Amino acid sequence: MNQPTSLTGRVHVILPAYNEADSLPSLLERFAELNTAHPELRLRVLVVNDGSADATAEVASRSYGNLEVTLHNHERNMGLGQAMLTGLQRTAASLEAGDAIVAMDADDTHDVNLIPIMADRLAQGSDVAIASRFVAGGCDRTAPPFRRLLSRGAAVVFRTIFPLESIGDFTSGYRMYRGSLVQNAVRHWGNRLIEEDGFACMVELLLKLRYWGPVLSEVPMILRYDRKMSVSKLKLMRTLRQYVQLAIRNAVTPTPRELRYVSC
Question: pLDDT digits over 244-255, tens only?
């Protein structure tokens, strides 16, 4: 991918949240601590409240020290895919040169301290840094067995059928993207950048970004499912069906034409 490798701008964090009032306070406090410890990141957090029935919006509207937190509300629950799309579109519209985007879960199971490590990966030339459970040093032992089985099965299938050889954790919801890469994808795909409404949206996003030839890398993540306070939104059979549909659609979709890379 022909673009600068330095990471000199802000780090924008997208948190799609559905009924995460119990988990958000501790997560946002961790971000405030990270922002103090690493002022060079200049963190900006966007909480996309996806029609929550609890106090998610109220919690996201509180003050968390010097951390800049913005709230965007969906009037009704539209699913993870639409919440992620909203976050990417809103963030891409305000990016400046050298900025990066982090997408992660709002349930406090992801370690915010991986963000400086992922920022270093982008500074060294990666365009997407993925927090992976499946590389040396990564672990998902605290997750439920069915969830672990689904993630591993999906990884085997996707490594087999998709041309992203350097990636082991396709379904991780914790990633850092070079801002200009996301801007180009938003500009080209528009509202079709993410069409899946469930967990398969993270695989779909990777597949659509691959047309720009991004450099991908993984950093080890220890999933802290033991900190999760909200009910899991993952529906096993529905997610399996979405993965199959995504694989079929990817197989029959022609390569987009006239892709252009424009540095922000």
Answer: 676 666 665 666
